[in-house]
Design brief:
Largest sheet: 2 strands, antiparallel
Shape: elongated
Number of strands: 2
Structural class: mainly alpha
Length: about 90
């Protein structure tokens, strides 16, 4: 039972890390702070404030790591349980 709780906690932190990773990578870019904030907003909303346009590739940069982590952390245990039942 304790092992399951540790796994659940680790998976939760993987998802949180994947959600924060795009913003953290923008923070360490060598650009002006105002531009960093604009790019972080752009990554999570898909909307570029300066160009006034929405693009899915902006949105994907911010959300694909999280979506991948969610699919992985929920998919792996599900596949393991299916294989165990065979």
């Amino acid at each position: 039972m304790g092992k399951r709780n540790i796994t659940t906690t680790v998976y939760k932190w993987i998802r949180i890390g994947a959600l924060a990773a795009p913003a953290v990578s923008r923070v360490f870019e060598p650009i002006e702070p105002k531009e960093k904030i604009e790019r972080i907003i752009q990554d999570y909303t898909g909307y570029n404030i300066n160009d006034r346009e929405f693009r899915f590739d902006y949105l994907a940069r911010g959300w694909m790591p999280y979506i991948g982590a969610v699919l992985t952390t929920y998919g792996i245990p599900k596949l393991a349980s299916i294989i165990r039942r065979l």
